[in-house]
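INFO batch 0412 | record 1 of 1 | parsing
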Amino acid sequence: MKTGGNFFVRAWRTLWRPGSLSMGALMLIGFAGGVAFWGGYNWTMELSNDESFCISCHEMRDNVYQEYLKTPHAKNPSGVKVSCADCHVPKQWIHKFIRKITATNELFHKVAGTINSREKFIANREKMALNVWRSMKATDSRECRNCHDFAVMDIKKQKKVAKKKHPGAKKENQTCIECHKGIAHELPEGWGPNSPLPEDKKSAG
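INFO prediction complete | emitting tokens
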């Protein structure tokens, strides 16, 4: 036992001795630093996904959040709540990272006061909605499909309109946002739930 104990003592001293083998100490420090960085990164990610963070600015709290509270995503018979991040932040790491980077653009508009009044918000609603809708269409409504999946839908038990529309949507590879705009927020003036995007109108014409 004593020999074994001496071995670990010598190994530890060697690890921290200046020279070629001190690289081991640097590796330990690097590893510990990496773990700390990764933990801090994930903590920050989760903090910025929290609903309280999303509505910490009055632009969101006084506008879209109030609209969201009136929808089934916020309150429903089953008690399943969908928060801001569930719809607007991907779950997969790489997509989540990209979304967080692009979200820094929102900080610029916060400072610039682009939507710091109800009037400005209404004036910019269509532009903001189009940005979100285009992103959702480009990702095949990825965040919607975390909860709503054709593969596990019991279409026979759905309401009349859904029962009629969903089989065709599945067959034509339509994505959720093509028919469900305004599901959690008010629509811009002149828009309906299944209104096509401007570029889709051109391609159809």
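INFO post-check: The chain has a mean pLDDT of 88.
INFO record closed
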